[in-house]
Predict the structure.
Amino acid sequence: MSRPITEAFVRSIPKTELHIHLDGSLRIPTLIELAKAARVKLPSYSEAGLLDKVFKAKYKDLPDYLRGFAYTCAVMQNAENVERIAYELAQDNLAEGVRYVEVRFAPQLHTHDSFTMEQVVRAAVKGLERAQKEHNRSPAVKAGTDIPFHFGIIVCALRFFNEFMSPYYAAISKVMAYAPRKQIIAAASLELARAAAVMRHDLGMPVVGFDLAGAEAGYPAEDHRAAYQYAHSHFLRKTVHAGEAYGPESIFQAITDCFANRLGHGTWLFADEMIRNPAIEDPKAYVHNLSEYIASQRICIEVCLTSNLQTLPQMKSIAQHPLRKMLDHSLSVSICTDNRLVSNTTVTREIMLAVKHLGMTPRELRNVVVAGFKGSFFPGDYKEKRAYVRQVIDLYDRLEQEFLG
């Protein structure tokens, strides 16, 4: 019989981070330093003060959770800062055993007259590449006792924005001033999809995916169908924040209107009581068919335990999280942080929460870890990805034998 899963074991194994927002994952000392340099006013200039006033253990709701992004985005308005933040994020992930990360952010939140979308993304890539080179030149990787670090960039469109959120959003709102709001938002998403395809295919940048983030209720994914069709037609992989603050119908839209290869959160997949469409006569059958489709197509769900607990008032404890049900239904699942700073967490901590509160077994843990690598939007070709997954499995099995017997 194997020994129990320990934090030391979880830290040692190769892991993925498939759902992490760059602007939600700064180091607090870096935020303070950059805010002072840019004259960005913070509620506090001490780590303890920011943890008390902004980046809290528990938030009232999603808007309260999102409040801190106003401060982080304010210091991400030039290439030097974005590069540094991306580099530090890679370092923090590498330190806890993450060997593949997909960093997501909305370039349009950082774009202005002297900082284009391409420059925003290139700055993030530069920071991640610096960390990658440092790790991949390490003696452990060269000796074969560790595996290389890889990364990809996911660009995020927003379900909703207004002219106050960035100069880019102000400009497009002004140009399309007489258009319906949903049309303006759709136009911004389509422009981002086009830019992502150029960066990926013409400029050779590791832009591996397209995402849709923001409040679900009242801002359906179907409004962004043109952007997702463009991404789909240009061989970009797709993920969608869905089922985080709305029910199964949002997840259905992500798959049918946005061709989602993965789902961000998917928290309310099994919540048939949340179905609102009166045309769905049998909600339980609808949920069953939807979950079976997701399982059979191996559409990976990016689960973020702490973030869900912080933003969903009806979820009182990790024990209530549907991850347990997802595992029981053999769904493809990867455990992620969402935001290292805003949720004050790490991949290791998130996995340990699943072990302690949801009874995740060693076999389930292995499946989850491997699913993360298999479900990744790996920037290389398929043969390279398969070889990399093989390296992951071999290293995992060696460490499992060493730690768990």
User: Anything to note?
Assistant: The radius of gyration is 20 Å. The mean pLDDT is 96. DSSP finds 18 helices and eight strands in the chain. The first helix runs from residue 7 to 12.
